[in-house]
Recover the amino acids of this structure.
């Protein structure tokens, strides 16, 4: 039999890096944990890990079980939290994941309204995942994903709720500021400021610069959109942001926005949920509120 305790042990050993630390996290003695693993290995005729000095390395069988633990245990834990919510009179917990730096501002202006409408629903926000947001959603680490980049998966349903355009933001005295439109070649001599994600997740590269075989002179990152705007206002470079965010946060700053190409770069904030959960009332309530905000 494959029981949950074995999976929990493997996950904690992977997280902590040692049997001793994992035993402490699980409120077990080291000898009890080692005995449980030894019995499991004997029963199935496998080795889960191999020790080398103070370190250990998972075997192929151990890595297979660890991957299973990382998929299955969050689902058990979520089910237990839901049952506890029902037992305490709450409707449930909405765990929201976010893959979009500027989306946080949009989300925060919705959150207060949502918490008022659903007073018995707990609300949790996560921005870091083991792999990516879609995997976290599919593996029950979160219940709802906010992303501008939906993917086609049969187990996930994405709904667009808010349309916007990405625009170039430059200082009002910048030579480009007098133009209404910029082309990829116009950025060859610029320092481009973006959020700290890989280039393959930046539309300014994938949809604008790379197809034209262009690169900016230099590229730097900033952790917040506020800092990005301040750097542009100080003449330290140009950036690309959603038009609505610049309208809200750029008031009073010496900056101008320009369209990226003749057609612009249109985007939408999407909400992703697992198929079949669109009828859960407090999830459907969040989707309705998001659509209201988009309108």
């Amino acid at each position: 039999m494959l029981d949950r305790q074995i999976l929990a042990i493997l996950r904690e050993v992977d997280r902590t890096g040692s049997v001793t630390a994992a035993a402490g996290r699980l409120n077990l003695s080291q000898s009890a944990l080692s005995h449980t693993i030894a019995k499991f290995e004997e029963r199935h005729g496998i080795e889960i890990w191999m020790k080398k000095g103070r370190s250990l390395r998972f075997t192929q069988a151990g890595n297979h079980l660890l991957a299973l633990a990382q998929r299955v245990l969050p689902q058990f834990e979520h089910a237990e939290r839901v049952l506890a919510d029902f037992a305490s009179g709450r409707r449930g917990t909405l765990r929201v994941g976010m893959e979009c730096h500027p989306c946080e501002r949009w989300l925060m202006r919705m959150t207060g309204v949502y918490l008022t409408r659903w007073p018995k629903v707990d609300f949790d926000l996560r921005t870091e995942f083991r792999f990516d947001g879609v995997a976290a959603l599919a593996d029950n680490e979160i219940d709802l994903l906010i992303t501008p980049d939906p993917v086609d998966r049969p187990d996930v349903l994405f709904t667009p709720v808010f349309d916007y355009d990405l625009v170039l933001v430059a200082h009002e005295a910048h030579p480009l500021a007098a133009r209404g439109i910029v082309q990829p070649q116009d950025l060859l001599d610029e320092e481009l400021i973006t959020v700290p994600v890989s280039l393959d997740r930046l539309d300014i590269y994938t949809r604008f610069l790379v197809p034209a075989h262009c690169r900016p002179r230099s590229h730097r990152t900033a952790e917040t959109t506020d800092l990005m705007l301040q750097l542009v206002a100080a003449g330290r470079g140009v950036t690309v942001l959603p038009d609505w965010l610049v309208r809200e946060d750029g008031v009073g700053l010496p900056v101008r926005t320009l369209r990226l190409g003749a057609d612009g770069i249109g985007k939408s904030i999407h909400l992703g949920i697992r198929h079949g959960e669109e009828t859960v009332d407090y999830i459907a309530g969040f989707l309705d509120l998001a659509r209201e905000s988009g309108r």
Notes: The chain has a mean pLDDT of 90.
